[in-house]
TrEMBL record:
Protein name: 2-amino-3-carboxymuconate-6-semialdehyde decarboxylase
InterPro entries linked to this entry: ACMSD, Amidohydro-rel, Metal_Hydrolase
An individual GO BP term: secondary metabolic process
Molecular function terms from GO: aminocarboxymuconate-semialdehyde decarboxylase activity; hydrolase activity; metal ion binding
């Protein structure tokens, strides 16, 4: 039987949140203006922040899109705007509980085909570990974290404590960039998403390597970075060169050059072009690239997996690994997924993988 096709990078915005100021304390929280059964607007105060649609909260819509794209399973993660890392920890704990519980309601309607990942109050490592444990017991399969907490990167002692706990309890970690720098040069052309996100992810991979995190946390840590690992894979040679030539400034707490750590993390496949995917596979290895889409947001890939299907340099075994085998290893033995009866044989159909679904009514992650 073919391996299931697993998309590890999708997002949820559930309906039905309470007034977050009343429920969590503080002010300035987002709220959801519901415009119709299938359309809503995330509001911050009276400012329209982001339009969202039924794919964000409606399991049948997600399942229909998955069937159309030949996807058996989605990993369903929070939308980063709700992380709350910039707030007092007690408020972030409360908002995490609210959204984690609502996410379980969304994914429950999809059965085993929708695999929920939780969010945690990462600014407080003890609270983050406690919320992760609560969520794993409730049915979440892993956790999505942002790539930094203010000026604290992933080599911060508290975040390392949390990552160590993830390794100890067997929870996979998906790292998504968020809170990118702004300013006049970046607040146009979606530059914060187009340049800021890749740079943020690049910096966070370096933090795990040069900050000595991979030399300290258990090797059982399963961690995956969004958007193909940002700009890190393309500039790996530059990082290695700097490690050797300017070790006094670059090596930090690492014990080997960056290229020595590529077997410690994975990246998703959201790079859109076969040439970019080839560089990613050549750099990371075909066993370290997982199918991702950024569904349901318009900067994501639709049809899901088209770059993997269009990349004729991949062997059949490599393509199967990228489409699902690697994700199964990332998720771990505790997550049971299998090929959906609804789409058995779909990927054997001769289909056009060059089309792009154009949806400008849903904003970026």
């Amino acid at each position: 039987m073919p391996l299931p096709v697993v998309d590890v990078h999708t997002h949820v915005v559930p309906k039905g949140w309470p007034d977050l100021a009343a429920a969590c304390g503080g002010s300035g929280w987002p709220w959801l203006r519901v415009d119709s059964e299938r359309a809503a607007m995330i509001m911050v105060g009276e400012t329209e922040f982001r339009p969202v649609g039924a794919p964000c909260w409606d399991a049948p819509t997600r399942l229909a899109d998955m069937a159309a794209d030949g996807v058996d399973v989605q990993v369903v993660s929070p939308t980063p705007v709700f992380f709350g890392y910039d707030r007092p920890a007690d408020q972030a704990v409360k908002v995490a509980r609210i959204f984690n519980d609502l996410t379980l309601e969304v994914t429950a309607a999809g059965g085993d085909r929708l695999v929920p990942f939780c969010q945690v109050p990462l600014q407080d490592p003890d609270a983050a570990c406690a919320e992760l444990d609560r969520c794993l017991a409730a049915g979440h399969a892993g956790v999505e974290i942002g790539n930094h907490v203010g000026d604290r990167d992933l080599d911060d002692a508290g975040i390392v404590q949390f990552l160590t706990h993830c390794a100890e309890v067997g929870a996979p970690v998906f790292v998504h960039p968020w809170d990118m720098p702004g300013g006049p040069r970046l607040n146009r052309w979606m530059a914060r998403w187009l340049t800021g996100m890749p740079a943020e992810t690049h910096l966070s991979v370096l933090a795990l390597i040069l900050g000595g995190v991979f030399d300290r946390v258990p090797e059982t840590l399963r961690i995956c970075f969004a958007h193909g690992g940002g700009s890190f894979p393309f500039w790996l040679g530059r990082a290695d060169n700097a490690w050797h030539r300017r070790g006094d400034l670059v090596r930090g707490a690492s014990t080997a050059p960056p290229s020595s750590y590529l077997d410690r993390f994975s990246v998703d496949s959201v790079v859109f072009e076969p040439a970019a995917l080839r560089l990613l596979v050549d750099t990371m290895g075909a066993d370290r690239v997982l199918l991702g889409s950024d569904y349901p947001y318009p900067l994501g890939e639709r049809p899901v997996g088209q770059v993997v299907h269009r990349s004729d340099f991949l062997t059949d075994a490599q393509r199967a690994a990228l489409l699902g085998g690697n994700a199964l290893r990332f998720l771990g033995a505790g997550v049971a997924v299998e090929r959906s009866e609804a789409i058995r044989g779909l990927l054997s159909i001769d289909r056009d993988w060059t089309g792009v679904v154009d949806d400008d009514k849903v904003a970026p992650a």
